[in-house]
Amino acid sequence: MLRFLTGLTLLLMLSSVLSAQREPLRVGIAGLTHTHVHGIFNSEGRGDIEIVGIAEPNRALAQRYAEQYGFPMEMVYDDLESLIEARKPEAVTAFNSIYEHLAVVEACAPRGIHVMVEKPLAVSLDHARRMQALAETHGIHLLTNYETTWYPTNHRAYAMVQDSLVGEIRKVVIRDGHRGPKKIGVDPEFLEWLTDPVLNGGGAIIDFGCYGANLMTWLMEGRRPETVTAVTQQLQPQNNPKVDDEALIILTYSNAVAVIQASWNWTIGRKDMEIYGLDGVIYADNRSDLRLRIPEGYDGFEEKSMTLEDRPAPYDDAFSYLAAVIAGEVEVEPADLSALENNLTVVEILDAAVRSAQTGETVRLE
Questions:
Q1: How far is it, in rounded angstroms, from Cα 93 to Cα 49?
Q2: 53-112 pLDDT, tens digit each
Q3: Torsions phi, psi of 257, nearest 5?
Q4: Residue 232: phi, psi to the nearest 5?
Q5: Which of 236, 252, 266, 308 is 20 to 30 A from 244, alpha carbon to alpha carbon?
Q6: pLDDT tens profile 1-14
Q7: How far apart are CA 158 and CA 207, in angstroms?
Q8: Would the pTM of this model clear 0.85, i.e. be above it?
Q9: What gap in Å lies between CA 267 and CA 67, rounded to an integer?
């Protein structure tokens, strides 16, 4: 164990040195309608990336961000093609609707430009497979960013599973969501497509169901579930008239089950996970708080609680990670949370979940 920790420490030190020595990654932004775009503007100051251009046809929206973050409107182009020709980015990050992710990859992949999209990878399985083909044909990285990828609690939980601290996984319960996009006051440009069944692919089942599918695929080392069963409801028709706002997804594996609760009806915002193994339970309560329970006697347990610090760079920030991957300092494994392979499985699960909810039947994956 000491040898492993020493090697890991040396690897992280080397990564930090390499990051300090290389030039910032030249990044273009495709769209400003997804308000997670604040993350890349806040990340630029770390020095790993340089935002060289923005593609956004809504000039008023672009002006709003320009005033907030102090960039000149000369950086803003009406379309991605114009941005690419003028600014020559090495990578593009997509902050538009999920439906538009395919168009971003279609513009970037043939030019050898790497892409990172916000979760989920694609609006449909057809789009996802076309994006995969483009990425593989042209040899680009195609990553998907989730907020929960950077939670130290999730990675400590994964390490505990790998170290057999709770035994083999039997059940995982993952809960994600908030009171609903309209209730929490998301920007109108975001709300417009987030609650559109075409542009987003669905409601809460897509918006928050993807988190659980992504985490479970990671925990299962890339294995696909055998069956997918889902139930959806619309509990806020006045706020979400076109899409579901409540979803329950059940995934079965040969030796485990996952219950994904995706909702725009939680009283409070939450992103938490419970992992039940044969010998114990892990509670990843939020980004930093984690609990481990080991059973004692008939119904007792011993609990250890911990508050975790952020992971070391570049594993604490999506855009620092993107730069490290493109620089060859980090290798993305197929089951990794950001990996194309993992996120193809996520879209496959979501596709099956939507069909199950529509038909009332369990979908068995081929």
A1: 11
A2: 999 999 999 999 999 999 999 999 999 999 999 999 999 999 999 999 999 999 999 999
A3: -140, 150
A4: -125, 155
A5: 252
A6: 334 344 444 445 55
A7: 23
A8: yes
A9: 33
Q: DSSP assignment of 87-116, as one string?
A: H--SEEEE-S-GGGHHHHHHHHGGGT-EEE
- Distance (Å, whole) CA 206 – CA 98: 10
| Token pair of 310 as six digits | 């952020």
CB 218 within 8 A of CB 158: yes
Tokens representing 174 are: 């993952």
**Residue 243 is which amino acid?**
V
Question: 262 is written with which tokens?
Answer: 């995706």
Could you list the beta-strand ranges (E) of the chain. 25-30, 49-55, 76-77, 91-94, 114-118, 142-145, 169-177, 227-233, 246-252, 257-263, 270-277, 281-284, 289-296, 300-307, 363-364
What are the backbone dihedrals phi and psi of residue 225, each rounded to the nearest 5 degrees, phi first?
A: -70, 160
> What are the residues whose beta carbons fall under 8 Å from the beta carbon of 360, sequence distance 6 or more?
none
Q: Tell me the C-alpha distance between 4 and 7, whole Å.
A: 5
Element (H, E) at 48: none
- AA letter at 267: T
Token pair, residue 357, equals 């909810």
